[in-house]
Every structure is written in C-alpha cells, then in structure tokens.
Design a protein that fits this description.
heterodimer; A: Glycosyltransferase; 13 helices; 42% helix; 9% strand; disordered N terminus; B: 901 residues; two-stranded antiparallel sheet; two-stranded antiparallel ribbon; 4 strands; 50% helix
C-alpha cells in the first residue's frame, strides 16, 4: 500500500473524458526501490506468457539427452548424483522423469519411475523418502520427504499422462499432488499459502513459531498442472505467494533471496542455522519463474544484475556483503544466467550455455537441461544461432 | 485504496513533479476558446496545450502545462481539453472516414502520413485523429487480451488511460479481467469499483458484477455487492442475480474461503432453482454443499438428482462418497467402478473401498467377477494399493501363488511396510527361503514389522482359517451356534452351506458361491484371486498336518545377512493402447547406453539407523549384536551372504517382577482359561509328532526350519534366574515340594504352585523342568506356557509353541488362550477392531465362550454397530439371562433408539 501510494505521487496521470481512476496502474515496473533506485527510467514490462505449455516431446536436444542418460541414469532407472557420493534422491528422480517425458523417451521414463516407486515410496503416506544411498542398508537414510522432489515427480507424471495418454500416471500424480496439498501446503500466512520444505522439521511448531521455507522448492511451472491434478490444493495462489515471498526476500546489497528463510509474521529473514547465502538452492528460483513464464521485470532484476557483469562462472553470494564467496564453476549453472538474460533482455544463449557438457556433475548438468527445455518451450528465439 | 485512488483520479490535476524543460509551443490556431475560472478573467492562450491534448501527445501536454502554470499559478487543465473537437473535415476527407469506418486502420494511418508528406500544410481532421487513436488503442488491447498478454495489456492501458473510459464498458471489463489474470486482484477490484461508481445503467451494473464474479475472489465480490443500490423495498439491486451470488458463495464455502453463513432463504431459493435447472452441476453443487456439512442423506439425494440430469464423473464421485459415508459399501463400490474412467479419483476410491474389505484378516466372500474387475483396474492404473489388497486376500485364503504375484507388484509399486511384510510371509509360506531372507534383510532398519518376522515379540500369528482342518470336531459347535460369524468390519461371513437357522441374509440376497474357494472346514468361502499374468489357479498343499504355522524365529542364518539395498522388483502397467502416440524417440537418444551402476557390492551386512524410523524388534527386545567373524581380509573372495554378525537373544522372557494382573474390561467377565489338559494326554514329540484329524490324511511334516531348541546358554541363564529367586522358590517348596531336585520334581512343584495361584513361581519351576526329557520336558513347556499366560505374559507360551513338544490339543489350547489375551489387551486399549479380529481367530480354533461373546458384542457396540451388538446380546440373553447380558442389551437398545446416537 505504501509503495503504491508513493508511486501514485510520483507518477503523473492524465484523465479525460468520463473520468477514470487509473492510479491503480501504478505498476511494479518502476515501483521497486531495490532494483534500479529512483531516477531509473521505467522499463517496459516483460513480454511473458504464463499459459501452460505441455512439455512432452519439447526437449529438442537429442545429443544432449543421449549424453545425459549415459552419464546419470542407470539401467535400473536410478539418477546418480555424481557430486554427492553417487546417491539418489527424489529431486533427481523428478528431474529425470521430467526430462524423459520432454525428450519423448518413454522407455527411460518407465525405468526411472520404476526405480522411484520401488525404492522411495516407502513412507506411510503418498510422499517419497527423499534420499537413497545405494551402498547402505537400508538405502533410505531418512523417512522424511523433500517437497520439491514430490512436486517434480507429480508434475512429470501429469505431463506424461497427457503426452502418452496413460491414465495410470494421472492416478499416481494425483496421489502425490493430493498428499503435498494436504500435508505440506500451509494455508495461511502474510504472503498467502506456501509449501513446507518437508513433513518433518520445518513447521512453525517445530521452529519456535518461525517456520523455515525454501523458495527454490516453489516449482512454479508445476503448479498449473497440479491445480488440475489435485484441486484440493490452492496451487494458483501458490504462484502469487511465491512471488510475494520473493519480493520480500531481497537481502543485503545484492537484493538476493536466501537459500533458506525463516518466516515470522510478515517478516522474512535468512534462516538461522543456515549460511546466509544465495547459492545452489536459490539459483533455481529464476529458472522456475522463467520456466513458468511468470514474474515481472523487477523480479528478475537482482538475478539479471548479478549475472550480467559476471561473464565467468557463477558464484555463491554472501548476502551480508553481496560478494562472491566461492565459485560454482561448472558450466551448467551458467545456463540459468543465460536464461535470465534471455527473458530480461532477449539475449541469445551463449555457446557455453547452449552446448551441453556431459562431463559436469549431475546437478549443473540437470539445470542446464532444464534451462534449455524452458527456452525451447517459451523463448525459442534465444536458442537460434 | 479505493478512496485514495478515486480522489486522485477525480482530481484532474497533473502533479507538480512533471519533467522540466520549457519550450515554446508552435503557433497553432486555437480549436476552442480557453476556459478559465470566472474569478480570473484573464485571457490565457492555451491553444498549444489543447492541440497536444487533442493529439494525445502527452509528453508535450506536460511540458506545456508546466509552462502555463509558471506563467499563471493555479492554472488547471480545462475539462474539455481532451474532448473531441467537432472538426470532422470536409467532403474531401470522406475517403479517410470510409477507411476508418471499415476498420482499415493501418491503411488509414499510412494514407494520412502520405498526405502529410505530400502536402505539409495539410492536417487530418482532429476528430478523425482522436477517434483513430482511441480505436487503435482498443484494437491493441483486444489483441493483447486475446493473446493473454496480461502484463503488456496493463502496461499499455497505463500509458494512456484517456484512450478508454467507462463509456467503453467492454474494454474496461477486459482490462479488469487482465488485471485479475495477472494476479493483480486489487487493481482489478478497483477498476470494477470505478465502473460501479460511474455507471448508472442497472443492466450494465449487473453485468459488471457478473464479469467480476468470473475473476475475483468472493471477498472482493462481496465488496462490489455492497455497492449495490438498495431499493425502497430494502432489496439490493444485485439480488436480481441472487442465484449466481449464492452459487459463488457456496463455491467459496466449499473452497474454505468463507464461512458457512449462507442465509437459509437464499439457499432455499438456490435449491428451488437447482431442482429445475437442466445443468446437472447445479444440483451437484447442492450435493457438495450438503456433503461438506456432513449431511450425507441430503447429499446423496442431490447427487442422485444431478446424475439423473446427466452429471459427470465428479458428480458420480460425490455420489460414491456419500454412499460410503452412509455405510453402503456395495453401492459406493459399484458407482466408483462404473465411473472409474471418467474421473481419476473414482478409480482411486474404487480401489480403496474394495481394498479395505479384501485386506481383512479373514476376508469376506468376494465374487470371482468382482475380483477380476478389481484386478483389471489395479493393473491398468498400476495401483500398489490394489495389488496389496489382492495379495492379502489371496494370502489369507491360502491362494499363495496368486498372493506372491500380487505382492510382487505391490512391492514394486508401493513398498509400504505392510506390503513388504505380506511379500516376505508369502515367500516363507511357499518355502522360498533365499527371497524371504533377502526381503527381511533389505528392510532392516526401516520396517520393524518386517524384521519382527524373524524376531519373536508380542505379535503372535495364529494359523489362517483356510489351512485349519484339525479343528473340525471342535468347530462343529461354531457352525451350530445361532449367532452369525461376523468379521472385523461387522459384516456377516457365513459358511457354505450354512445351517438354515443361521442364515443371516435377507431373503434372496445370499451370495452365489459357485466356483468358489473354501476352507477345509467349510466355514468360510472366498472367490478365486485371478493371476495378473493369466495363469490358472495353483493349489498349495496347506498344512494339513494339524501343526499350526508359526512365524519363523530368529536364526543367525537368516539375519543379519548382506543384501543389495535396492528393491529389484519392476512391473509395467497394463498397456493402454494410445490411439495416436507421439512420434518415436530420436534414434541417437534411444540407442544411448545407460550409466553404469557405481555400486556392485559387497553389500553392507548391518543395517544403519534411519532417521525417523521406529526401533527394530531386536533393539526393543534387548538383543545384543556381536561380531562372529573377523572382518574378511582385503581382496578375499567368497560368499558375501555369510553373516559377519549375530544377535544374541536376551534372557527368557519371564519377568518375575511383573504383576501380570489383568484388569477386567468394563462389563466383561474375563477369566484366563487355566484348565490343564491332563498329563496323560501329551506324548513325547519323537513318538507321535502330529495328530491328524479323522477326515484328513496327514501329510508328512513340511516344516522348512527346525524349531529352535533351548541352547545351553539359555539354560545357564535360566539357572541363574532360578538361583536369584531361590528364596521365592524355597517358600514355594514349603507347601509344594522342592523345585530344586530333578526336572520331574520341578514340574510337579510347578503344578502345585499353579493350584495355589502362584503363577510366577510356577513359571520358574516349570522352566527348570524343561531341562528334562520326554514327557517331563513336554509337560514343563506346557505348564510354563499356562503359568505365563496366567500372568499376562505371552513369551513363555511362545517358547512352548516353538519347542515342538506340545500336542495338537495343547497347542490349540495355548493358541486360543493367547488370542484371548490378545483380544483382552486390544479391548482394553480401545482397539475394538483388533479385538474382534483376535476373537474371530480364537473362534476358528475353539468354540466361543460366553465371556468372549460378550466382549465381541461390546466391541461391536464400541464400533458403532449397535444393531449387530444388539443381536448378539439378545442371543446371549436368550441362552442364559444374566446381569451382563441384560446390561448389554439395555445399552445396545438405547443406542438403537433414534435420537440417542
């Protein structure tokens, strides 16, 4: 409200004819003090289209997909996290399923789903145990879930159900989606509904009234699908509240969100007990926004600014100083930066982001594939040579 | 917000903070005379400002305004500055108007430019320019609306609000809708409010509210509704569409975004409308409203009406759920099955409803056709729940081959604790020890119930009714009893052929048992579980030897052993042919190899602690882990399934400190049955291991593992126990003879102590006696079991059962007593379903005692089945009317009376 009023004051309006109240158009394009500061010319709104685009068969990267499979997906359908002792987790399985349906690779999809169900569906509810160590017994190390993994798997299943016309995937997607809606969606907060990162350990009652959230677990492009799959959840509003949370998560001189944040009333802060950083988790926030075609220019601005001056590898940023603490050297991370520049400025993907490097580890490789997929879906002009 | 916005909007003022920079305006003829406040009759030349305004050159308007305000402080922009000027041009401009009329706007623009280029002194008619601008804005906005470019649309609207107005309501609605679609609800609401403030046409006002209802949350709609004019009759003008408003309120209530405060008269008129509406979703909405308010009879009524009007799968879902809530399982099942392909939750509901019945410990009769339907849906949706339910149905009716096939699928799709337990049990029943061992070990650390299959604990499993044949003589009274056999769910499970007097079915509703499967005693009947691969039914020789099947016990050869932690089971969904499947995968991606699995063993021999998992039985039972082998030398090869560790069992589960007192459940005369079967009956196991029932030939013994014998270490421990408590034993000896002598003497002392109701000391004495041989040893185990059960302990009884020394008759007695204890414990803990299950299992072994029947009736009552409870109390009261039966009858009757629930 305050922000709106101040922008009303600064913006001149001409009204004529039968008189209208267009003060309500005081937009966010130049309303954000964090991004440009006063005096910056108002930027044009982004030309984003948030309508749902089915992704089945849209990953037009056969070479990259072949290389990805050969490096990260076992014959059993286990996705190997090469940088973390070759373990597997629900997030990796979800990404694998998503890429498989996008690559129209049904055999691989079946393999990944088969492994996922047989090994991670061991909880009493319809969610997945989040982590599996193939050299330990039992393989599941923790009965807790990871909400982004569950959301990713449900999303991939619903895309697969549509693309391959298999109702079995719909049933499975619905089960998981309904469990996420029922167990993990916090219905009320100052920002609207939000998602707990896991069933155990993060809620208000477990965190002295200041629950902990992870903004990169808001897999925005999944929500439109899940709204159809599990309508008991208010997935539409989750998009708004995710963006609201992001707009209140501009920490330090670089105005970046934290990896983990604690929510007290209407105040967000980097979560105590976690490093106050922007890094491996949070860099997925702009990826998911771009993938869903949501957000305004100001929402992308901190990321665009962070990554525009920096043509080299990405870095983990300390929120207090706004400076790099350690490098995220692998090239796949750079694809997210390229995607953000594509969304904000229409810049084409540089070669380093366009060419898939199979030698890198699972996580950057996966993020690069997802960035390419998002570009194929919504920003194809950025991929043209 | 609205007040701030409107006061600003109506201010008609350009803020003083406009961009600076004064420039002379071009000299142009004034289109209209300047209007100034009457108090200041100074002639101000604002023709330049008017020119710019007419041409919508806003930047220049701002500059010119600034200049004028510097010259004439207090100058305000004239209200008519933007008003189209009646300069329509001359007849020579008609072709331009024609283009305008034909909506050829691009062509018109080009023509004007061309004209201006060729004749710099020419200007297009001002009216045309103004109208062209508005029309082009409109076209752009509509195009953006069509392309769903919400943010761009709003940005464009913002650049020149003067281009559209409440006069063009359609455009205004579109902008408001765009704001809502861009998740800018407050902006959207403000626009609708603006319209309602300025627009006075009642029809247009109502249409505006309807438009808003399509986009805004109900709370905002209520704000707009409150802006409605209230007529002299006190009615809001918007009540013309009260039906729509009530519908939106109901929807908001269903979505938990508003409380249930719909006025009864509004709801009544909505019902009247819904009743006659052709759209099935209207009565459907009434159905959901009642459903949410837990008024299921009314919900059912309205869903039925909606279905009769052609309702869809979602309506059918409401119908099935209402039927379910009303306890009409067969109808709920039929509806959800019929609509399974129309709406995914119907298929899930169907799997759930029938699944619950299939998975009961003594499953009810389900016809072959119903089982086949269920199996079909299970395979089509690769439902782990469905596969598990079929697995349990098959297992509990001794169709073990089918059980294995279904548990395989369930474990591949849905490896929950109960699924894996079913799979392991089935492996064991089929004698597949390697798979049994691998399965139990794979889930060590995660699933205590699975690990409990090799560790004795307080869960004792009695033989399945489907494999009991030796109980025939004892079971006869059960068949003759007038009370129907009732399973856990309170449903009547009847034998085939049932005695006519016991027929509990309404006439004409008895199931058709043709081509069905029954237990050896014809007490139960089940349908055939189809094989998922279409194989014919394979009978498994049940344990006709009269030896009750027991859980395997801890054996170091079984546990712990090294095993690959990954679950290898995979089953594809039954393929649904996709009519137009997408094109094939790129060849390069299809041919690419998989990543090699980085881990190929050796596998860990020991389980780790899993965060969030309960304690394993060996932890809660006090077992100790020891290393039995030195770690293998590096590079050594060999069988990695050899155990490197063993668990050491705790001392025998005889706790002299335990009181063993049993609380009598309210209203229940519970007494442990302690009537030792005479010592003459038991015989040494070596001579006559099993007594076959007269009707059934005894097959050879088929146990796969030898029963565990008490080891030397156990005896030593026991001796220490005895020594520790020698004072108590000595006291006993003063009246019952010495327990310190031979095993035979110890057994005699044991019986003596039992008669003195000193069960714990008797237990000690009997334990000493188990060191003996032959009948002494057999009697000692038997006595120990009875003494333990009398103290409420099941451990000694279990040891006795596992000793292999009990005659079938004694075994049956111990089994029954353990079940009685289990039922009693469950009843006391308020687990009435479990109590009924234990009573059912007990009744399958021995005739039901009156005390058990009373417990059954009270359990039924506690499970809100007053009708069944009443019937049972009545039957008991007719046998012998006692205070207990009369009291139960009174309570059940009161519960049956309407209004007392």
């Amino acid at each position: 409200m305050t922000r709106l009023r101040s922008s009303l004051r600064s913006a001149a309006r001409l009204v004529a004819g039968s008189v209208l109240a267009f003060g309500i158009f005081a937009g966010a394009a130049h309303a954000n003090p964090a991004t440009g500061g006063k005096g910056t010319p108002a930027l044009a709104p982004l030309d984003l289209d948030s309508r749902l685009i089915p992704l089945g068969g849209r990953l037009d990267e056969p070479q990259a997909w072949a290389a990805y499979k050969t490096r990260f997906i076992t014959a059993d359908g286990r996705i190997i996290d090469t940088a973390n002792g070759n373990i597997s987790h629900s997030e990796g399985q979800g990404y694998g399923l998503l890429l498989a349906v996008a690559a129209n690779d049904r055999a691989t999809f079946r393999r990944i789903l088969g492994w996922t169900r047989a090994n991670l569906m061991v909880r009493r509810d319809e969610l997945m145990a989040w982590r599996f160590d193939p050299d330990k017994r039992p393989g599941v190390s923790d009965t807790n879930n990871a909400t982004d993994g569950d959301v990713l798997v449900a999303w991939a299943l619903s895309e697969a159900a549509r693309f391959w016309r298999d109702p079995a995937y719909n049933v499975e997607a619905r089960r998981i989606g309904a469990a996420v809606a029922g167990e993990l969606m916090v219905k009320q907060s100052a920002f609207g509904p939000w998602l707990l990162p896991a069933v155990r350990g993060f809620s208000a009652s477990e965190q002295d009234g200041a629950p902990i959230l992870n903004l990169s677990y808001f897999v925005f492009p999944a929500f439109e699908r899940l709204q159809k799959m599990a309508p008991e959840g208010n997935w539409h509003r989750l998009v708004d509240s995710g963006l609201n949370l992001l707009r209140s998560s501009r920490f330090g001189p670089a105005h970046l969100p934290a990896e983990w944040e604690s929510l007290k009333g209407s105040v967000l802060a980097p979560a105590p007990g976690f490093p106050a950083e922007f890094g491996y988790n949070a860099l997925r926030i702009p990826l998911y926004m771009a993938f869903a075609g949501i957000g305004e220019r100001s929402d992308y601005q901190p990321f665009a600014t962070l990554w525009s001056a920096n043509t080299g590898p990405l870095s983990v940023i300390s929120l207090a100083s706004g400076t790099a603490t350690r490098s995220m050297a692998e090239p796949g991370y750079g694809a997210i930066a390229a995607l953000v520049q594509c969304v904000v400025n229409g810049t084409g993907f540089p070669n380093s982001a366009r060419v898939f490097y199979a030698e890198q580890n699972y996580y950057p490789a996966t993020l690069q594939m997802l960035s390419l997929l998002a570009a194929h879906l919504r920003y194809p002009s950025c991929l043209r040579p | 917000m609205p007040s701030a916005v409107s006061s600003w909007g109506l201010g008609l003022v350009l803020a003083a903070t406009l961009a600076s920079g004064l420039r002379a305006a071009p000299a142009v003829p004034a289109a209209a005379s300047a209007t100034l406040p009457a108090t200041k009759p100074v002639k101000i030349d604002d023709s330049a400002l008017r020119y710019y305004a007419q041409h919508h050159q806003m930047d220049r308007v701002k500059i010119e305004l600034k200049r004028l305000q510097a010259l004439y402080p207090g100058y305000k922009i004239p209200k008519d500055a933007f008003a189209p000027v009646a300069d329509a041009g001359g007849p020579e401009d008609q072709p331009l108007w024609d283009l305008f009329g034909a909506d050829k706007l691009d062509e018109l623009e080009a023509r004007i430019k061309q004209h201006e280029h060729s004749d710099p002194s020419w200007h297009p008619p001002l009216l045309l320019v103004t109208k062209l601008h508005v029309k082009m804005m409109r076209a752009k906005i509509l195009a953006m609306y069509k392309a769903a470019k919400w943010d761009n649309l709003l940005a464009l609207a913002k650049t020149d609000p003067s281009a559209f107005s409440t006069k063009d309501l359609d455009l205004m609605w579109k902008v408001a809708a765009a704001a809502a679609n861009a998740h800018k609800m407050q902006q959207s609401l403000s626009l609708y409010e603006t319209i309602l403030k300025t627009e006075q046409d009642p029809q247009k006002r109502i249409a505006t509210l309807q438009m808003a209802m399509a986009h805004l949350p109900m709370a905002s709609i209520e704000d707009l509704y409150a802006m409605g004019h209230v007529g002299p009759d006190g009615r809001n003008e918007f009540d013309v569409i009260l039906t729509d408003i009530t519908r939106a309120r109901i929807v908001a209530f269903l979505h938990d975004t508003r409380p249930d405060n719909i006025k009864p008269q509004d709801f009544a008129s909505f019902r009247a409308y819904a009743k006659t509406a052709t759209d099935p979703n209207q009565p459907g909405l009434v159905g959901w409203y009642y459903y949410k308010r837990a008024d299921y009879p009314n919900a059912l009524k309205w869903f039925k009406l909606a279905i009769s009007k052609g309702g869809d799968g979602i309506i059918a879902h409401g119908l099935a759920r209402s039927l379910l809530e009303l306890g009409n399982y067969p109808a709920a099942e039929a509806v959800s099955y019929a609509w399974r392909d129309h709406y995914v939750p119907n298929s899930m509901l169907y799997i759930d409803i029938l699944g619950r019945q299939l998975a009961e410990s003594i499953p009810p009769y389900v016809s072959n056709q119903d089982l086949a339907n269920y199996a079909g849906v299970t395979l089509q949706t690769s439902s782990g729940e469905g596969a598990q339910a079929l697995g349990w149905y098959a297992y509990n009716s001794c169709q073990y081959h089918a059980a294995l096939q279904w548990f395989h699928r369930a474990a591949a799709w849905y490896p929950k604790e109960s699924t894996i337990k079913g799979l392991a049990l089935t492996y064991k029943r089929l004698g597949d020890m390697p798979q049994f061992v691998a399965t139990v070990n794979r889930y060590d650390g995660l699933f205590p119930d699975v690990v409990a299959l090799v560790f004795p604990d307080d869960h004792y499993t009695t033989p399945l009714p489907c494999e009991q044949s030796v109980m025939a003589p004892l079971a006869a009274p059960v068949l003759a009893a007038p009370a129907a056999i009732i399973n856990q769910a309170g449903q009547i499970v009847r034998s085939d052929p049932p005695p006519p007097e016991a027929m509990a079915y309404a006439p004409g509703t008895a199931p058709n048992y043709q081509d069905s499967f029954h237990d050896p005693l014809w007490r139960y009947v089940w349908g055939y579980v189809p094989s998922p691969t279409g194989e014919p039914y394979q009978p498994v020789q049940p344990n006709y030897h009269g030896q009750a099947w027991h859980m395997p016990v801890y054996d170091p050869r079984l546990f712990p052993v090294a095993v690959n932690p990954q679950n290898p089971l995979r089953y594809a969904t039954l393929q649904n042919p996709a009519p137009d499947a997408p094109a094939r995968l790129f060849a390069i991606a299809e041919a690419s190899p998989s990543a090699p699995e980085p881990f190929t063993g050796p596998w860990p021999a020991l389980a780790r602690k899993v965060s969030g998992a309960p304690a394993m039985p060996y932890q809660s039972n006090g077992y100790k882990l020891i290393s039995v082998m030195a770690p293998r030398a590096k590079g050594a090869t060999g069988d990695d399934t050899q155990p490197h560790y063993q668990f050491v069992p705790p001392p025998p589960a005889i706790d002299p400190g335990a009181t063993g007192a049993l609380d009598r459940p309210a209203g229940l005369p519970y007494q442990p049955l302690i009537q030792p079967i005479p010592a003459a009956a038991p015989v040494p196991q070596q001579q006559l291991p099993y007594v076959a029932a007269p009707a059934v030939p005894a097959p050879p013994q088929r146990r796969t593992t030898a029963p565990r014998r008490a080891s030397a270490r156990d005896h030593a421990t026991a001796q220490r126990l005895v020594i520790r408590h020698d004072r108590r034993v000595a006291q006993a000896a003063t009246t019952c003879g010495s327990a310190e002598g031979t095993p035979r003497a110890a057994v005699a002392a044991g019986w003596c102590l039992m008669h003195l109701n000193r069960s714990e000391e008797a237990s000690q004495a009997f334990w000493r006696g188990t060191a003996g041989a032959g009948s002494t040893r057999a009697d000692a185990f038997y006595g120990m079991a009875l003494a333990g059960l009398n103290s409420g302990l099941r451990g000694p009884a279990r040891s006795a059962l596992q000793s292999g020394t009990l005659s079938p008759q004694r075994q049956r007695q111990i089994d029954a007593m353990m079940l009685g204890l289990e039922a009693n414990d469950d009843y006391r803990a308020g687990h009435y379903r479990a109590a009924l299950s234990a009573l059912d299992r007990k009744r399958s072994i021995v005739p039901e005692q009156r005390s058990d029947s009373l417990m059954r009736a009270w359990s039924l009552l506690n499970l809100s089945k007053p009708r069944a409870a009443f019937a049972l109390f009545q039957a008991l009261d007719r046998q012998v009317s006692t205070a207990d039966s009369r009291r139960g009858l009174g309570v059940a009757e009161a519960r049956l009376t309407p209004g007392n629930n």
